[in-house]
Amino acid sequence: MKLDNVFKKTRLASARYITLNHSRPEVPEGLLRKCNKCGGAIIAEDVKNGFYICPKCGGYFRVHAYRRIEMVADEGSFEEWDKDLKTRNPLDYKGYEEKLAHLQEKTKLDEAVITGKAKIQGCETVIGVCDGRFLMASMGEVVGEKITRAVERATEEKLPVIIFTCSGGARMQEGITSLMQMAKTSAAIKRHSDAGLLYVTVLTDPTTGGVTASFAMLGDIILAEPNALIGFAGPRVIEQTIGQKLPKGFQRAEFLVEHGFVDAIVERPKLRETLGQILKMHGAGEETVVPAAEEAAPESAHLHNKVADAWDRVQISRMKDRPVGSDYIQALFTDFVEFHGDRYYADDKAIVGGLAYFHGMPVTVIAQEKGTNTKENIMRNFGMPSPDGYRKALRLMKQAEKFGRPVICFVDTPGAFCGLEAEERGQGEAIARNIYEMSGLKVPVLSVIIGEGGSGGALAMATADEVWMLENSIYSILSPEGFASILWKDSSKAKEAAAVMKLTAGDLYEMGIVEHVFTEPSHYTVQNLKEVTKAMDAKIRAFIEHYGTMTEGELTEHRYNRFRKM
């Protein structure tokens, strides 16, 4: 950028500029900076007003703690806590006190974390923000104490907690005392969780070491800023240990989402809005769902499927232009916030899940997703979940149980993925665990089979209080091709197998396996989706009204008896 252009952009920002013998004006000192990411010349005021993001490369600069609070909290709402806690020197480490004094003078901070209470879009919350300028926000005794006190007070006042993490890890100068803060903060968060309260972490660059291995990764919801470095061991330590260069993007936020450890990456300008939405979805005073009159069960003519058309139903359930799980989420719910990952290994894109509103009530929605074109089919593995997908679904269900939200599942899978990786990661265990846990969930659970309901891969999301089907969906022990192959040693007899298997909605309704069947338009696509979702909306409202009045014991007993009689 030429100096003339810089001056033109900065002239209005400041009237103080220097002229020497009528030469060209110069930029005031401190006004022009260099981006340490792209090397471009940037105007400091523009960066401050732009969420500390480089206007040229989009790179994120680290944000001071108080500035961070200004960016997300309602103006004037922040009340700081425990400001004057004093840091000790448990190891009598030489020069430590002097280092602390210098940093306190330089940063105007007492320690590496600021804690207190604030409002975000009107929602009261406890907030903690780490500041990397203070010993790289390493976790010493005072950092651990301030976070623990904040969480304990939040538990007493029944408030959610949001912590912005940024840390190099444990504080070496405090030795084992620093290590103990990992246990102390984690134990406080466990008590907060046991009280049924919300904990959100926002991982910023960098979040490493003992902070990652304690309070940073324990959030009910874990968000991250784009490209933030997140890991236990730092990249340099890993490279020295294994003796090889790490791949590009390793340990960055995007890597963590792909591997199942972060719910979502949120751009900094959208953080306040996103946090406010999450807080509201977990707050009190939600709008009550007004129940609609429950519509009558379909006529028997709709339910009676002749032997000859069972295979036709199979074919229709697999139609490429048939609505998929995400279409139902969009049609039936508002303000959907998708969460990613199983917190173990990966984010399986065959499962889509998160939070949404249903007529003003927060619900957890989970769908098996096939995709709508070849590219999406491949990305979503044609709707065949891996163990990571079932574990993601279960994580969201358990989260719903903690916060008392109904769970609504949309089932559409030819079956769980059969592959080497799936077996290595425990496909059978993942399905069994879902069925086991769903049978005892203490919130209403509804499952709707919208396409294929293949085997245990479907049952792992259909162990519910009620199971509904669309007229041309199917639900079976396995595919007709597999049935024919196993029993008749001839997969080409799939059509005959479909007739024998009693896999249509009508068959299953008459057998008492499902509670309701929705009729479909003759050629069912996204264009006429509303013809189905209008009736479905009314039924869901009635379902939530009915099961929402049950006690936890009544819910689990009803679900147990539902399957006990089958």
Topology:
Elements: H1 3-10, E1 32-34, E2 41-43, H2 44-49, H3 65-72, E3 79-81, H4 96-107, E4 113-120, E5 123-130, H5 141-156, E6 161-167, H6 175-194, E7 199-208, H7 209-212, E8 221-224, E9 230-231, H8 235-242, H9 253-258, E10 264-265, H10 271-281, H11 300-303, H12 310-317, H13 325-332, E11 334-339, E12 351-358, E13 361-368, H14 374-379, H15 387-403, E14 407-413, H16 420-424, H17 427-438, E15 445-454, H18 455-459, E16 466-470, E17 474-476, H19 480-488, H20 494-501, H21 505-510, E18 516-518, H22 530-548, H23 552-564
Parallel strand pairs: 5-6, 6-7, 7-8, 7-9, 8-10, 13-14, 14-15, 15-16, 15-17, 16-18
Antiparallel strand pairs: 1-2, 3-4, 4-5, 11-12, 12-13
List unreliable stretches of 5+ residues: 1-27, 284-291, 296-308
Q: For this entry, what is the oligomeric state of its chains?
A: single chain
Biggest beta sheet summary: 8 strands, mixed
Shape: elongated
- Give the mean pLDDT: 90
* Strand percent estimate: 15-25%
Q: Give the number of DSSP strands.
A: 18
Distance between termini? 75 Å
